[in-house]
């Protein structure tokens, strides 16, 4: 698999002398760019770099298409290599000249070299450009924006409407801090054979379709495992029920809920397919269950701590209050069985492993802890990260803001548990679970402004069926 550890794929095209790809990139850029600009006048910001030469080619193509295009040369004489574009020194813009740019649509083709990220001249250039009343579109990625590594709070970089990236997204596009600089990104010339970096992988529809297993003829409910969902309390019964629904709709053969007896009416009404295990029986042998989830809405009482202390003898999927118990009793971390799965959101993660300044630090900590504890960590966000004990980090690309509502994490926990019960490995269950969870919401959001967790659970069988068609 080709490794692009520094994700400057446009420069990769130059080094590979792949002119056919460069032409194809420009074609796709023009096709994606034109619908967003109407008949506005366009300014192209040209740097003395390979990206600048791409910008010139795009400018010339736009002119041939009868657009009004101006080119502006932005050169950092302290650091830039002057070998790419030859123009008179008088053609290079000063910061004062930049402030006079009138075009309302700009294409960022600057790309000062990486060692200018903290350079005063570059910083002032970016500030001047960002102060313009213009919509900015970036070639590959915004100038000044680090494609990997920590996105620091003091970072100065171009702020763009859309980044038209080449071959594959940059790792940092998936971190929340990127939203300050990139409103959206589109991948041009997508190449699924490329990895982001040796230990980073994109979880894609192609990957999920290859992993999913069709149901066999003559199979029965016993063929697809038995999940146990340990969760719920008097005032948070819904969390356990949503987790059970995730298990059911992901295809588990049998699902049992270990909830307070006070929740039986709700369980029998909402999910009559789910069986019941009383809390008094929780201290007995749990080995008959194929997969066990712990924590959704269960609380953090001393009794809950004792239940976790017993259940932890089995590999578990731990979420919500289960993670809060781990945070309060750190010794439990070393009791986790290899192959266990933890599914925290950002606050739960920091409570468990300490405060972090940015998402890059969180991934570094998660990678270290997953390897140390031999567990899988699903760090939930708009793009969830699945961190494996083998140092591989999967970035889940499905999902959207419409699913920003309560109960989504509970459903995801149930889905992963249901997939484990069906015989998928912990790694596969996490990858598939996150993808189909987000994909279900993607499908629902096509006709709805917002979606709720129970609707996402019900959409799962349809999503799996559609993905199976790709097998």
TrEMBL record:
Plastid as UniProt keyword: no
Residues the entry annotates as binding AMP: 380-384, 409
Catalysed reaction equations from the record: (6S)-NADHX + ADP = AMP + phosphate + NADH + H(+); (6R)-NADPHX = (6S)-NADPHX; (6S)-NADPHX + ADP = AMP + phosphate + NADPH + H(+); (6R)-NADHX = (6S)-NADHX
Record flagged with keyword Membrane: no
Cofactor or coenzyme needed: Mg(2+); K(+)
Pfam family membership, one: Carb_kinase
Sorted UniProt keywords: ATP-binding, Isomerase, Lyase, Metal-binding, Multifunctional enzyme, NAD, NADP, Nucleotide-binding, Potassium
Family indicated by similarity: In the C-terminal section; belongs to the NnrD/CARKD family. In the N-terminal section; belongs to the NnrE/AIBP family.
Cited function: Bifunctional enzyme that catalyzes the epimerization of the S- and R-forms of NAD(P)HX and the dehydration of the S-form of NAD(P)HX at the expense of ADP, which is converted to AMP. This allows the repair of both epimers of NAD(P)HX, a damaged form of NAD(P)H that is a result of enzymatic or heat-dependent hydration. Catalyzes the dehydration of the S-form of NAD(P)HX at the expense of ADP, which is converted to AMP. Together with NAD(P)HX epimerase, which catalyzes the epimerization of the S- and R-forms, the enzyme allows the repair of both epimers of NAD(P)HX, a damaged form of NAD(P)H that is a result of enzymatic or heat-dependent hydration.
Subunit structure: Homotetramer.
Name of the protein described by the UniProt record: ADP-dependent (S)-NAD(P)H-hydrate dehydratase
Species assigned in the record: Pedobacter flavus
Name of encoding gene: nnrD
